[in-house]
Amino acid sequence: MSDLFEKNELIKVSKGDEIAYNRLYYRYHQQLGTHIFRITKSMDLAEEIVQDVFLKIWMNREALSGVHNFKAYLFVISKNHTLNCLRKLSRERNHLNICEEKYTMSLTSDNGDSNSYHTILDQAIDRLPPQQQRVYLLSRHERLRYAEVANRMNISNESVKKYLKIANASIIAFVKTNLYSVSFLSISSTFF
User: Fold this and answer.
1) One fold for 3-84 and 113-191
2) What's the rounded Cα separation, in Å, for the pair 57 and 55?
3) Who contacts 45 (Cβ-Cβ below 8 Å, separation ≥6)?
4) For residue 44, what is the DSSP state?
5) What's the distance, Cα to Cα, between the start and end of the chain in Å?
């Protein structure tokens, strides 16, 4: 794609031309996905980030008329978004690991029942709405990628992502509430 042609495409996209946007997407999405995969080492995350980056470009398309090197612009946006996603994932994993260790240790030391945590976790999963529960189990227990879950359930990747996010939040809230209750009851029974 020549510089002049690409500049014209960017101007068209900035004015809302979806066909020009699709041409840019198909020109760069695979190359961008490969670049992001090198950073994340996760095909699912790379696919998700590519979609997020191109959505962000479309949402802020008016700014494209001032872009002189779209490829550099695209790669800077994707690198920043990728690093933000990796930081967020790292914080979430650390938080979940700390919570799991804390509650497992609390249960084990308070009442000797290390299975309580897993029982509460199972209850939390059982309480999910059927669609969220199925997405969660396919993703977390069968270790299917977003695209595989989406294909199996005949839903979009975005729906899979949304269901997992809601399911995780629901499970965390349920486990926290119930583990606090179990710990409180266990501590109360030792003192009273």
Assistant:
1) no
2) 5
3) 36, 85, 89
4) H
5) 77
- pLDDT at res. 76: 92
Please tell me the predicted confidence (pLDDT) of residue 53.
92
Where are the domains positioned within the chain? 3-84, 113-191
Fold adopted by 3-84: Rna Polymerase Sigma Factor; Chain: A (1.10.1740)
Sequence-ordered list of residues with C-beta below 8 angstroms from that of 145, at least 6 positions apart, any chain: 43, 44
Reported as a pLDDT band with limits 50, 70 and 90, residue 3 is confident
Residues contacting residue 157 through CB under 8 Å, at least 6 positions apart = 47, 48, 51, 146, 147, 150
Residue owning tokens 């804390």: 102
**5: part of which helix (H) or strand (E)?**
helix 3-14
Q: How far is CA 181 from the centre of its chain?
A: 30
Residue 156 is given by DSSP the state -
Q: At what angle do helices 157-191 and 146-153 cross, to 10 degrees?
A: 100
In the numeric block, the tokens 């191109």 are attached to: 54
C-alpha 42/C-alpha 37 separation (Å) is: 6
Q: Report pLDDT digits (tens) over 32-78.
A: 999 999 988 888 888 889 999 999 999 999 988 888 888 899 999 99
Domain spanning 113-191, CATH architecture: Orthogonal Bundle (1.10)
